[in-house]
From TrEMBL:
Source organism per UniProt: Devosia epidermidihirudinis
UniProt-listed InterPro entries: ABC_transp_permease, LivM-like
Record membrane topology: Multi-pass membrane protein
Protein name: Branched-chain amino acid ABC transporter permease
Lineage: Bacteria, Pseudomonadati, Pseudomonadota, Alphaproteobacteria, Hyphomicrobiales
One GO location term (cellular component): plasma membrane
CDD domains registered for this protein in UniProt: TM_PBP1_LivM_like
GO molecular function: branched-chain amino acid transmembrane transporter activity
Length: 441
């Protein structure tokens, strides 16, 4: 084989060769982590990483395909988690045996009536009410509907919290909860997108930041629905739990490995199906149209493309995956804790995954997701080991121990993310695997 052929074979500028080398390196990293952490912890890490991969693919649809700023990743993940609580959490007999369902049904009916009143007010121009009178009528409809709804939901919530704690779930399969989580995220994305996508991109970013914080406050304070800061636990799995394996005589250590392998296999199947679907869609005429809108929406609009409609399509599609990924994480972790959702690890980290991996490239996003999540997880114990050794050395030379090692090590996660994204933007500004656009011959 000639020297030229060898150089071509190792050419990292070739997208295919670059992908093979980087994924091979990631595979080696996973093997090393598995050897150090053990099978149980490795399957835990990989399953959570796959859930985050779904979320990152959703953000890539929005940002990589459409150039849409979405900083409401955390909010959509919370909606997915809340949905899977409602669908799959165990049934609460205290709620169903009380007057709670009746009171909640009245509140829901009042909500629907209020929504119809507002919609009717928005169509009042059909009967000759226009201009300022129409605006005043809409404002009045909103006010009356809100007061009427609160007159029903407040006593219902107080009654449920005092008698049953919270409404509980329906005890159905968690996968149905994942699906409903995606639907709820899609509905919220449709509402936000309808309002904000017609404006400049920075307005969408501002709107999604606000929506994310509103959703967090909303879910966190609805104790009758999600138990708020009291958390909902344990959440069921769609596959056998470790306790079920233990009941069949499997050891405790092996039971966690087998159970997590089952969940990992299910999550991997979902990820592969989603990946193939969006990869095929983006490589076809639909993807070419989306790239044209992203790169020059004015030119695309002049050719008759519905710019806002297509951007709304992307925004909703991406939010579906974010909601499903959030619901999957809630089920796997077996706990829904609204207070645990923080922008740093439920929005910022997902953005880092997409940017480092390569926006617009689904393979790059998968690579970035596993790289960033592994770095996020192992940076804490690695920093603890370093700090403890430094503390022992400093104590031996008379400088004293390093205080609060646990909290300092936890903060190193953010530092590591900052270092990774800085290096990536310096040496790979378009990501480790940049977007590759196939040219039509």
């Amino acid at each position: 084989m000639s020297d030229t052929a060898i150089r071509r074979g190792l050419d990292l500028n070739d997208p295919k060769m670059r992908s093979i080398v980087l994924f091979a390196a990631m595979f080696v990293i996973v093997l090393i982590v598995g050897y150090v952490q053990g099978a149980a912890n490795t399957t835990l890490l990989l399953t959570q990483a796959i859930a985050y991969a779904l979320i990152a693919l959703g953000l890539n649809i929005q940002w990589g395909y459409g150039g849409l700023f979405n900083f409401a990743v955390m909010g959509f993940m919370m909606l997915g988690g809340a949905a899977t609580v409602t669908i799959s959490a165990p049934i609460n007999p205290l709620f169903w045996d009380s007057e709670g369902p009746l009171l909640l049904g009245k509140a829901l009916a009042m909500f629907l009536v209020g929504a119809l009143v507002v919609l009717a007010a928005r169509q009042s121009h059909r009967i000759g009410i226009k201009g300022g009178w129409k605006t005043a009528l809409i404002v009045l409809a909103w006010f009356v509907s809100y007061v009427a709804y609160r007159s029903q939901i407040d006593p219902a919530a107080a009654y449920i919290e005092s008698t049953a704690g919270y409404i509980g779930g329906l005890g159905l399969n968690p996968m149905l909860g994942w699906l409903i989580g995606g639907v709820l995220a899609a509905i919220m994305a449709f509402i936000v997108g309808k309002i904000s996508l017609g404006l400049r991109s920075d307005y969408l970013a501002i709107a999604t930041i606000g929506i994310s914080e509103i959703l967090r406050a909303f879910v966190k304070n609805m104790d009758w629905w999600t138990r708020g800061t009291q958390t909902v636990s344990p959440m069921p799995w769609p596959v056998p739990l470790p306790q079920q394996y233990q009941a069949d005589g499997v050891s405790i250590a092996d039971s966690f490995v087998f159970a997590r392998l089952g969940f990992l296999a299910l999550a991997l199947v979902i990820l592969v199906v989603v990946f193939l679907f969006i990869q095929r869609a983006y490589g076809g005429p639909w993807g070419r149209m989306m790239r044209a809108i992203r790169d020059n929406h004015i030119a695309a609009g002049s050719m008759g493309k519905d710019i806002k409609g297509r951007q709304l399509e992307l925004f909703v599609m991406g939010s579906v995956l974010i909601g499903i990924g959030g619901a999957m994480l809630t089920s796997f972790n077996q706990i829904f804790d609204p207070s645990s959702y923080q922008p740093i690890n439920h929005t910022f980290m997902v953005w880092v995954m997409v940017i480092v991996g390569g926006a617009g490239n689904n393979l790059g996003v998968l690579l970035g997701t596993f790289l960033i999540y592994i770095a996020w997880v192992i940076s804490d114990p690695l920093a603890q080991a370093i700090f403890k050794n430094l503390s022992a050395w400093s104590q031996s030379v008379g400088w004293g121990v390093i205080p609060e090692i646990d909290s300092r090590a936890l903060q190193m996660r953010v530092f590591v993310l900052g270092v990774i994204i800085t290096i990536a933007l310096r040496y790979a500004p378009k990501g480790l695997l940049p977007e590759v656009v196939q040219k039509q011959k």
